[in-house]
C-alpha cells in the first residue's frame, strides 16, 4: 500500500496561525507542490509541508507498505531478525519503526481518551521478566531493564478497550501510579472496579477516589484534622481464587464498596456479563502472552 496522494491532500489544512486560511480543511488554498516527495503548499502563505505531517510515517523514507508489513509480522510474534532477513531491512531500522509506532499510538490514545466516562473497570496484574528472571547480580537487582516485571492492566468490558497499562513492581507505589493514571485519563468520576484479591487495592482506591472535608471547629481545644471521604459513587468488588497445589478449589466474590445488587445491575446494563467477574481482563492478559513473544 502506497500513499494515496489525493486522499491525503483532501485532508490537509494550513497550521500557520498567521495565515488567513488557517485550519480550513479541503480549502482551495491547498495545492500540490511535489507528488514525488508527497508535498503540498498553501497558496495563501506559501508554507510547504509533507502530507504525512503529524502521522507516524512522517520523515520515514521506506515505503509505507513495507513498514506496515514488518509491524504486522512482529505483532504476530515473528522474531525481529527473521523478519529483517526476509524483508531485507536492518534490525536497527525495524526497531526504530516499532518505537516510533508505539510512541505515536500512545500519544493518540492519550488524546482520544481524554474526559472518557468510565462505568466499569476490570483491573489485574500479571508477571513477566526482562532478559532473565533469576540469579541477578548485585548490580542487576536494581536495574529497571532486567529482572521481574509486573504489568498492571485496566480493561473496559463494554468495549474491550485497554484503557491503561502500567509497568513496574507489584508494590503500593506502582499501584498508586496505575490507579492515578486511570483517573487522569477519564472524567474523574468513580466507576465500578473489579479486581483480583491483591490486598493493597482497597487502600489505593480509597486514597485515589476520595477528598478531604474540614471538620467544624467548636472553639475549644486543638482544631481537628480534615477527614477523608470516599467518593459515594465508588463501587468495588474482588474475585479471589483459592488454590491448593496449583488446583483451583473455590472462587470467592467479595464486595468492598456498594452492594452486590448495585454492582450486578451495572454489569448487566452494559450487556457484557451477568455476574461479578474478571474474565475480560484475564482474557486480555492471556492475549498479551500469546501475542508478545517475550512474555511467552
Low-confidence region ranges: none
Q: How many strands appear in the DSSP assignment?
A: 11
How would you characterize the largest beta sheet? 6 strands, mixed
Series of secondary-structure elements, N-terminal to C-terminal: HEEEHHHEHEEHEHEEEEHH
Spatially, the strands of the biggest sheet line up as 6-5-4-7-10-11
3D structure, described in words:
The protein is an alpha+beta fold. It folds into three domains: 1-53, no CATH class; 57-112, Arc Repressor Mutant, subunit A (Orthogonal Bundle); 120-295, no CATH class. The protein is built from nine helices and eleven strands. The protein has helices at 5-10, 64-75, 80-87, 91-112, 138-141, 172-184, 201-208, 260-270, 279-291; strands at 30-34, 39-42, 48-50, 120-130, 147-156, 161-168, 192-195, 210-213, 227-230, 235-244, 247-257. It has a six-stranded mixed β-sheet. Strands 1-2-3 form a three-stranded antiparallel β-sheet, with no helix packed on it. A two-stranded antiparallel ribbon has the order 8-9. The two termini are 32 Å apart. The mean pLDDT is 87.
Question: Summed up, what is this model?
Answer:
With 296 residues, the chain is α+β, with helices and mostly antiparallel strands. The protein is built from 9 helices and 11 strands.
Amino acid at each position: 500500500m502506497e500513499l494515496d496522494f489525493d486522499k491525503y491532500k483532501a485532508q490537509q489544512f494550513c497550521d500557520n496561525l498567521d495565515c488567513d486560511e488557517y485550519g480550513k480543511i479541503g480549502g482551495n488554498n491547498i495545492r500540490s507542490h511535489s507528488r514525488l516527495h508527497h508535498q503540498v503548499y498553501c497558496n495563501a502563505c506559501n508554507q510547504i509541508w509533507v502530507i504525512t505531517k503529524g502521522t507516524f510515517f512522517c520523515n520515514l523514507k521506506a515505503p509505507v507498505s513495507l513498514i506496515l508489513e514488518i509491524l504486522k509480522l512482529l505483532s504476530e510474534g515473528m522474531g525481529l531478525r527473521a523478519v529483517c532477513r526476509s524483508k531485507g531491512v536492518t534490525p536497527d531500522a525495524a526497531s526504530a519503526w516499532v518505537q516510533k509506532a508505539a510512541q505515536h499510538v500512545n500519544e493518540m490514545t492519550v488524546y482520544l481518551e481524554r474526559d472518557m466516562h468510565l462505568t466499569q473497570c476490570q483491573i489485574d496484574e500479571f508477571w513477566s521478566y526482562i532478559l532473565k528472571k533469576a540469579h541477578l547480580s548485585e548490580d542487576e537487582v536494581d536495574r529497571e531493564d532486567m529482572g521481574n516485571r509486573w504489568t498492571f492492566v485496566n480493561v473496559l468490558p463494554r468495549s474491550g478497550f485497554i484503557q491503561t497499562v502500567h509497568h513496574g513492581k507489584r508494590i503500593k507505589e506502582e499501584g498508586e501510579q496505575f490507579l492515578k493514571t486511570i483517573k487522569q485519563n477519564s472524567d474523574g468520576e468513580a466507576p465500578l472496579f473489579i479486581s483480583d484479591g491483591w490486598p493493597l487495592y482497597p487502600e489505593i482506591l480509597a486514597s485515589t477516589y476520595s477528598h478531604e472535608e474540614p471538620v467544624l471547629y467548636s472553639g475549644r481545644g486543638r482544631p481537628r484534622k480534615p477527614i477523608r471521604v470516599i467518593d459515594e459513587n465508588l463501587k468495588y468488588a474482588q474475585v479471589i481464587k483459592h488454590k491448593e497445589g496449583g488446583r483451583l478449589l473455590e472462587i470467592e466474590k467479595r464486595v468492598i464498596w456498594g452492594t452486590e445488587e448495585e454492582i450486578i445491575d451495572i454489569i448487566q446494563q452494559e450487556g457484557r456479563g451477568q455476574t461479578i467477574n474478571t474474565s475480560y481482563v484475564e482474557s486480555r492478559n492471556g492475549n498479551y502472552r500469546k501475542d508478545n513473544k517475550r512474555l511467552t
